[in-house]
Specification:
Blueprint: H1 7-17, E1 23-28, E2 40-45, H2 49-62, E3 66-69, E4 75-77, E5 82-88, E6 96-99, E7 102-106, H3 111-120, E8 123-124, H4 136-141, E9 145-146, E10 149-150, E11 155-161, E12 167-171, H5 184-187, E13 192-199, E14 201-202, H6 205-222, E15 229-232, H7 242-248, E16 255-256, E17 259-261, E18 268-271, H8 277-295, E19 304-306
Parallel strand pairs: 2-5, 3-5, 4-19
Antiparallel strand pairs: 1-2, 6-7, 7-13, 8-14, 9-10, 11-12, 11-13, 15-18, 16-17, 17-18
């Protein structure tokens, strides 16, 4: 952390300032990512939305580095962990409310829960996201998509905490949403997603359920869901499919340490047996090099790589 800070002193200060909130010191991030990989966060916390604003205000005043994460389903965390404070939007920031065809979703809500509420209200348009193992904040941040749909198709607006600690609502038109991209990626930690509103369309409940079941079945058949991973490891290169390029390069099952290119779906790197972040990074580098040598196409990570000493 910044030289003027001792992790323990700051931890004690946080506990005194926010007596209701549980802070964890040196919390292993492998517990909070679907990859099951990652060293310790100096300080880890899962605040409620009402606690987020005062907490981040304090961190900014004290100039303490912090990072906001969602469900950890698209993250590769360094073996050396994360400096400063990791604020996890999870169970305490997961409220969902339905009003007509508009659903207001706090950033920590899991997409499958949003999907269930949409089904209950007979609203269609969210089916594509029903099986994405992420949270709403993460989905907006990377404009998540699957099976022909994207968050930008249904998003109305996003409520954020700005860098000067104002809560404001930004309409979707100002978010520069494109394939796996949003304006938040450039703003970095300056703007924190607190909640989002999506607009769906009234539909037939049985048809909505059946679409979701089909998508679930496809995921089970095609994806290595029985191993820890962060979903699709690489973005789809223009005009190609990452998984096919990797397969055609002969890398199905390619292994570095405990990390492996999934034998079931080459677009996924899995944690086969106690992989480290270093294993995964080396594997990704090897795959990119070999695919480039064979096809002249570079693969860009879709997974977010974060933490200390990530070169």
């Amino acid at each position: 952390m910044h030289n003027s800070f001792s992790k323990t002193d700051f931890y004690n200060e946080l506990q005194q300032t926010f007596p209701e909130v549980e802070f964890l010191i040196d919390e292993p991030m492998k517990k909070h990512t679907t990859f099951r990989i990652g060293g310790p966060a100096d300080i880890y916390v899962e605040p409620s939305i009402s606690e987020v604003v005062p907490l981040i205000t304090l961190l900014r005043e004290k100039n303490v580095p912090f990072m906001v994460i969602g469900n950890g389903s698209n993250l590769l965390v360094s073996d050396d962990g994360i400096e400063g404070v990791v604020i996890s939007f999870g169970k305490n920031t997961g409220q969902i409310s339905v009003d007509g065809d508009i659903i207001t979703v706090q950033a920590g809500a899991i997409l499958s829960s949003v999907s269930s509420q949409a089904v209950a209200a007979s609203l269609t348009g969210f089916e594509f996201a029903s099986g994405i193992p992420g949270s709403m904040g993460g989905a907006v941040y990377m404009n998540a998509g699957a099976y022909g749909g994207e968050i930008k198709d249904i998003l109305l607006d996003v409520t954020v905490l700005t860098f000067d600690n104002q809560v404001k609502t930004i309409p979707v038109e100002q978010l520069d949403l494109s394939y796996r991209h949003s304006a938040f990626m450039e703003m970095d930690e300056l703007s924190i997603i607190l909640s989002a509103r999506i607009k769906l369309v009234p539909g037939n409940q049985d048809e909505i359920k059946s679409t979701i079941d089909d998508i679930k079945q496809k995921r089970i058949e095609k994806q290595p869901l029985n191993f820890p991973s962060a979903g699709s490891t690489f973005k789809r290169p223009e005009g190609f499919f990452a998984g096919k390029l990797i397969d055609d390069t002969g890398l199905r099952g390619y292994t570095v340490g405990g990390a492996q290119v999934s034998e079931k779906h080459c677009g996924f790197v899995i944690n086969k047996s106690d992989a480290t972040a270093a294993d995964v990074l080396q594997l990704m580098k090897d795959v990119d090099t070999k695919v480039y040598d064979k096809f002249g196409v570079h693969l860009t990570p879709e997974v977010r790589i974060i933490g200390r000493n990530i070169d």
